[in-house]
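Tip: read the tokens left to right.
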């Protein structure tokens, strides 16, 4: 028994809805051996207008783009994948849930792009839980992959070896999470979330190029524009963190999670007084399909 599925769980697999216990995969696929596959992480929320998959189109467009960059064929459109996802939620009676679409390759032990792939979409319960506790973060000894070695903007399975190493190292050292640098020594991102720092009411996030430019990150930037909070995408050196007032991680799973300290140095501004807090509140309204124009800046 695990928390991802039970005897009754149904998942989408190659055009069919199948029982999760009966679903099978081949042991000779490139995804299992080489990490050559792509996936998404998506959330659904019970909103005032019913169950809504947050940013479904954006996530499935990114899945399609990840496939294109990686040379992995995908036979379904974002609209079709969204429809299948709603079916998975409905058949499993889920509303507050995490959705995991995965495109994985058919048996092929050679190092060539595949002709055939499988698509699965699974979902599991993820209570409407907004992370509020602050994280104690450390700068990782692991860098994000060099964009000359892979397409970092694709959500590729194998990239998460780097994430697992970084989070495990951080936890082993007694921290909650890691913050990784890029190959030039600038701040890049967390193992599964993007990074923002706040200084004098301005939010700054690493520019794209050496990161997975997250969908939550784009939503945060959009919220900032709407609420007239100054925001910039630029290079952040580790020394810049010393004069920052606050910082947070953002991602589909993390939502907006405040960072308490980096390498033991605490941010001085109380979270409730930051613009990050305003963005966090607006984000929570947005995922729940509520108007957030009332949020006072
Ligand atoms: N960076 C990495 C490495 C991630 O795994 C994620 C989670 N998908 C993010 C950033 C945030 O992306 P998103 O907001 O699209 O979930």
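Filled-in amino acids:
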């Amino acid at each position: 028994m695990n928390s991802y599925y039970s005897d009754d769980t149904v998942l989408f697999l190659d055009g069919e809805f199948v029982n999760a216990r009966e679903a099978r995969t081949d042991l000779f696929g490139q995804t299992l051996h080489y990490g050559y596959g792509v996936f998404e992480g998506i959330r659904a929320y019970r909103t005032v207008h019913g169950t809504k998959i947050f940013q479904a189109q954006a996530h499935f467009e990114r899945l399609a783009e990840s496939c294109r960059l990686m040379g992995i064929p995908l036979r379904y459109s974002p609209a079709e994948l969204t429809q299948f996802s709603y079916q998975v939620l409905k058949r499993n009676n889920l509303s507050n849930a995490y959705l995991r679409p995965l495109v994985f390759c058919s048996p092929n032990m050679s190092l060539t792009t595949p002709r055939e792939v499988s698509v699965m979409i699974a979902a599991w319960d993820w209570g409407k839980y907004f992370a509020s506790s602050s994280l104690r973060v450390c700068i990782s000894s692991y860098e994000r992959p060099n964009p000359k070695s892979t397409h970092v903007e694709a959500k590729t399975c194998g990239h998460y070896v780097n994430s697992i190493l970084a989070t495990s190292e951080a936890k082993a050292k007694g921290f909650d999470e890691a913050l990784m640098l890029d190959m030039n020594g600038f701040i890049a991102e967390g193992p599964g979330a993007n990074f923002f720092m706040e200084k004098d009411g301005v939010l700054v996030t690493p520019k794209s190029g050496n990161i997975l430019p997250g969908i939550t990150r784009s939503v945060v930037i959009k919220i900032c524009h709407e609420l007239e909070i100054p925001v910039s995408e630029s290079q952040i050196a580790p020394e810049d963190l010393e004069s920052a007032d606050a910082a947070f991680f953002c991602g589909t799973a993390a939502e907006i999670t405040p960072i308490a300290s980096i390498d033991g140095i605490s941010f001085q501004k109380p979270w409730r007084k930051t613009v990050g807090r305003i963005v966090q509140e607006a984000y929570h309204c947005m995922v729940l399909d509520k108007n957030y124009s009332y949020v006072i800046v």
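The chain has six helices and 16 strands. The mean pLDDT is 95.
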